[in-house]
Amino acid sequence: AAVERQSEHTIAQAIVRHASEQKVTVAEASQFKIVAGQGAQASVDGKTVYIGNKTYLQANQIDTNTLEQKVAELAGQGKTVIYVGQAAELLGIIALADIIKPESRTAIEALRKIGVKVAMLTGDNKITAAYVAKQLQLDTYFAEVLPNDKSNKVKELQAQGNRVAMVGDGVNDAPALTQADVGIAIGAGTDVAQESAEIVLVKSNPLDIVNLITLSKATVVKMKQNLFWAAGYNVIAIPIAAGILYRWDILLRPEYGALLMAASSLIVVANALLLRKLPLQ
């Protein structure tokens, strides 16, 4: 908790929050350093403490094999395992699990119904990612993805002809949010993620993504309807107002022309207001 207190990562925040709930006295840390997508380190009571994934601790000469059986067991339950080490010694592991919200399941089901394929980009190991993907019935998933590689994955999907919307909440998601055709940040996420996205879900409810797509598609349809109506109306009304039917004694008096023009605008507005009746989630 002493190390993670200086990090904005969601896992770090969860560890600090748990320590606070358990009324643990957290020591002061200095010389804090973070390695994106791997972990962090800091000096606590004069000793360097490392916390992060297996790759990060092994890179700092800490043997992680002693608890591999327990790690595999926890990963199989869909939990993310964080290693903690100090001075070439593995101090322990921390297991965290994302609680899948009911609205997340509902949102994914709704997205698939409207033809949207849902994929997951995560830095978690393949076992954990596979468990979560199965629980949510995702179309596909990409595991053990480093922060910089997330944007590359988005590029790959775009190169295949897909239009990609990226949803994220952390600092690590910022490059991918920028790369995506549409970046959507969770309101409860970091400021960096929100600044990188075009859209922010203020209520942090994934069902709003479904509403967003539904409303966007309906808005495009209304725009086309209104343009078609306006073009057709003017193609017919302007020649009549100009006197094209004069030889048959059909004229459009100026005051009637003005009223009809106002009426056409009201019809466009009324058609747009029908968007309020959309059955949103």
Write a structural description.
The mean pLDDT is 86. The strands form three sheets. The protein has a five-stranded antiparallel sheet. A three-stranded parallel sheet has the order 8-9-10. Helices cover 47% and strands 19% of the residues. It has three domains: 4-96, 3-Layer(aba) Sandwich (Calcium-transporting ATPase, cytoplasmic domain N), CATH 3.40.1110; 102-205, 3-Layer(aba) Sandwich (Rossmann fold), CATH 3.40.50; 211-277. Helix 4 (102-113) crosses helix 9 and helix 9 runs antiparallel to helix 10. It is an alpha/beta fold and 281 residues long.
Helix and strand topology:
Elements: H1 10-21, E1 29-35, E2 39-44, E3 47-52, H2 54-59, H3 68-76, E4 80-86, E5 89-96, H4 102-113, E6 119-121, H5 126-136, E7 140-142, H6 147-159, E8 165-168, H7 174-179, E9 182-186, H8 191-196, E10 199-201, H9 207-242, H10 254-273
Parallel strand pairs: 6-7, 8-9, 9-10
Antiparallel strand pairs: 1-2, 2-3, 3-4, 4-5
